[in-house]
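If you are new to this repository, start here. Below is one unmodified record pulled from the training split, so you can see the exact layout before writing a loader.
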Amino acid sequence: MSRPAGRPADNRSVRVRKALSNALKGTGRWIWSVRRLMLLTGALLILAFPAPNLEFLAWFGLVPGLLLIVRSPTAREGGIRAWWLGAGYLIAALYWMAPEIGPAVLLVGAVVGVLWVPFGVAAQKLLRAPITWPRALAGLVVVPSCWLLTEWLRSWQALGGPWAVFGVSQWQRPAVLALAAVGGVWLVSFALVLANVAIVLVIESLPRVGATVTPGAAGAGRPGLAVLGMAVALASVGAGPLAFALTPASPAAREVTIAMVQPGIVSNAAKRVDASERLTAELSRSGELGGVKPDLIVWGESSIAVDLTLARNRAQLLQLERLSARDGADILVSQDASPPGKGHEKWAVLVGPGGIKGIYVKTRLVPFGEYIPFRQQLGWLTKISKAAASNMVPGTGAHLLQATDRTGKPLPIGVLICFESAFPDMSRVDTDLGAQLIVYQSATSTFQGTWGPDQHASLAAVRAAETGRPVVQAALTGVTVAFDTRGRLLAWMGQSSHGVVTDSLGLPATSARTFYDQAGDYVPWSALAIVALAALVMFANSRGFPGRSAGVKGGSEAQYVAGQSVPR
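And here is the target side for that same chain:
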């Protein structure tokens, strides 16, 4: 039988398709390898936070991931790589919650990580070689703005809240935190990402190894852009110290002594109260704490086992009143309460010699720990983890509690509970209301031995720098801390310790305000405007605006005038 005509050509076509398929499979394996590398690159950024505290890593730790994003074959792939980087970053930042919420940690990373896609798209489009001056200048503004917008969006309570915001990594550097007094933690994050982008600009502006050096070509190098990158990187690093020098702290209008009680790991709720009372009683009699005269005593979150407002618990309240009278100071305690006709709530209760002086109800709850977002869809997590069996009821918002110091003068304090230290707006609201001191109550016993409590304690330093108010945090099992108005560490009691931390704090006048207090979140709003403008420009360019591409319309043939040159 004769071979059909065209059969050899068909065989060649099959071989070509097979070769292309094998090549694409190899490309696919390479892409997935890079994406997994992005996951690791994002996870390593958490080393800049407590407990490793390698905060210097934040100034250049994004560079490897940015280079992989910039060298993506397409903007779409750049966005996907940024997604993986963001997911790795969040999963590592929340690793210590895995015993409590199980696979929800991976779910949070995968879902919230998508917010980094614009960051990747912007980096790939603006910083890829060959870099031009317009794209370089745009990249230095737009790429950090995309990162910042991601942090701002995920700070929304419905998306879990602002855990591991990049700028918090600088909590040990008051000179850098001076930027927080100008633009909040958002400005610190912007400076960090800007430094990383500037370094990438330098690298991408240098000649590629092995590339043919032709003026204007991708591998030729642009020394002017490299100089620009180095200048911007140095400016980013120096911005904090410059702000520190130009924005002195408000003078202290008064001084108070705060005592923070940390009983340590006591599983039994009743015994935990006894331990806190015993430590507090030592303040007023000779002994280890003899001679200390606090103006306010702060206990940790869930330090009281009963509802002090109920008549049947009157004996417990009387005991606290007597303790307050003996020590000569109000006592701020915390309790889990279920008021009649309401759901479960978390309260901070200020008790003086005359009884309860004020109550604050926790407003921002811990996702999965105190409530499950979209419980109807995610309620199954309670079957495979320790996620909240029922949702707690949030309070109505921040407000002041009016304590009284030893001299009888009013001491307005902004009281917030645990996870609420992650939200810049809450401490700023308290400051606007006239708080001279910000107080946090915390209980992180579930996460002892992990990086979680240390990360949580570091947030207080940033809140102090933002508001220009000293900040203290009392924890049941650590970490208990105190920071001054510029975020400088004054006291630290770690996870393995127990006792009482006392510190004398200088309080500014109630009218004192940092620029961030006055201006609010203008930095993330500016980032939003920049990203929106960049998106409009990108859309316009893709559509050929403002001019239209020349060419044939309607399928008609081009006509040429005799004697004129024609395209070849």
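Two things worth knowing about this chain: The longest helix spans residues 7-44. Confidence is low (pLDDT under 50) at residues 19-26, 216-220, 547-568.
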